[in-house]
Write a structure and sequence with these properties.
By secondary structure, the chain is α+β, with helices and mostly antiparallel strands. The protein contains three helices and 16 strands. Among the domains are: 80 residues, Immunoglobulins (Immunoglobulin-like), CATH 2.60.40; 99 residues, Immunoglobulins (Immunoglobulin-like, Sandwich), CATH 2.60.40. Strands 1-8-7-3-4 form a five-stranded mixed beta sheet, with no helix packed on it. Strand 3 and strand 4 form a beta hairpin. The chain is elongated. It starts with a helix and ends with a helix. About 7% of the residues have low confidence. It binds 2-acetamido-2-deoxy-beta-D-glucopyranose (6 copies). The site of one 2-acetamido-2-deoxy-beta-D-glucopyranose has 2 residues, from loops. One 2-acetamido-2-deoxy-beta-D-glucopyranose (NAG) binds next to strand 8. InterPro entries: FN3_dom, Ig-like_dom, Ig_sub, Ig_sub2, Striated_Muscle_Regulatory. Keywords: Membrane, Repeat, Signal, Transmembrane, Transmembrane helix.
Amino acid sequence: MFFERVLLPVICLGIEVFPLVSAEDVDIREVLADKGTNVTIPCGGLLTMPAPNVQWVHRGIKTHHEVLSDRSLLLRQIDVDDAGLYECGVENETAYVDRVNLTVRTEPPPLVNVTVHASTILALILWNVAGDGGHPIIDFTAQYRSAMPINGTLEQWRPISPNHISPNSRQIDVYHLEPNASYWFRVWATNLLGPGPPVEVLATTLYSDQEAELYKHFLEGAESFDTRTWVAAVCVVMGTLVVLAAGTCAVLCREWRRDGEPAAA
Ligand SMILES: *[C@@H]1O[C@H](CO)[C@@H](O)[C@H](O)[C@H]1NC(C)=O
Ligand SMILES: *[C@@H]1O[C@H](CO)[C@@H](O)[C@H](O)[C@H]1NC(C)=O
Ligand SMILES: *[C@@H]1O[C@H](CO)[C@@H](O)[C@H](O)[C@H]1NC(C)=O
Ligand SMILES: *[C@@H]1O[C@H](CO)[C@@H](O)[C@H](O)[C@H]1NC(C)=O
Ligand SMILES: *[C@@H]1O[C@H](CO)[C@@H](O)[C@H](O)[C@H]1NC(C)=O
Ligand SMILES: *[C@@H]1O[C@H](CO)[C@@H](O)[C@H](O)[C@H]1NC(C)=O
């Protein structure tokens, strides 16, 4: 029972898969490597010829890279240009013995759909991720600076808290901007290999006297908190409660008297 139901299908599956595996001498092998590292790509297959008769072809052209004595190809400090298909074979023959697709892992590519929605003194930066470069994104970083040059130069970039934005985030708020002012905002992703290129967006805050004053007042109030204001607020609340309690008592007393009248009569 066990043999028929479980083992037999497994064995048949194995017999079916095996010929494919043995015939993979020209299948494309995938090799992943980090940008800037040295990579050795072995020329697999059942080759017995000496190294001088081996040639490696990249994108249809014989490579200038060093072929080692074991026929493998040595790529030094690889860059994105080195990615793609590598094929090794016997010199002057068109058939290939081994084919390798090299993928070069890099820093994250620039973020896409980067937009800034500015109100008077607040702004919201939004972005999308187009890829991670081959390693997961560790965090995002956003910065801003005034677009108005001072003495002919732009000010230093200012950090936007938090400095390390969660990799699940796709937006960040910016506070304490000036109304009716232009700012550059920039944002980028970082992975194991480092930061990707920043994307810069220009935005101008709205002009609205009242709204700006309101926000400023609110923020200033939060920073320099006055205990007298608090005591006054508590007094007002307590006073209201006392008045409410007195009112409730009065109503209850009247109800009680009204209920008592028929009983007395
Ligand atoms: C890569 O190759 C270069 C040039 O041969 C060498 O200077 C460097 O140390 C190598 N790097 C590694 C990580 O082996
Ligand atoms: C390959 O062809 C070139 C000229 O086309 C010739 O000089 C060279 O000897 C040939 N190599 C082999 C291994 O036959
Ligand atoms: C090589 O790998 C890249 C990325 O994984 C893929 O886009 C490309 O189609 C592959 N090329 C070949 C010839 O398999
Ligand atoms: C960018 O925005 C467009 C339009 O809103 C959307 O279709 C696309 O999916 C976005 N790109 C990414 C990588 O999210
Ligand atoms: C501009 O430069 C002048 C002289 O270099 C300096 O006195 C002045 O304070 C600068 N203005 C600002 C806003 O930094
Ligand atoms: C907004 O700024 C521009 C240029 O900086 C200025 O010309 C304009 O008068 C300002 N608007 C208000 C309402 O302050």
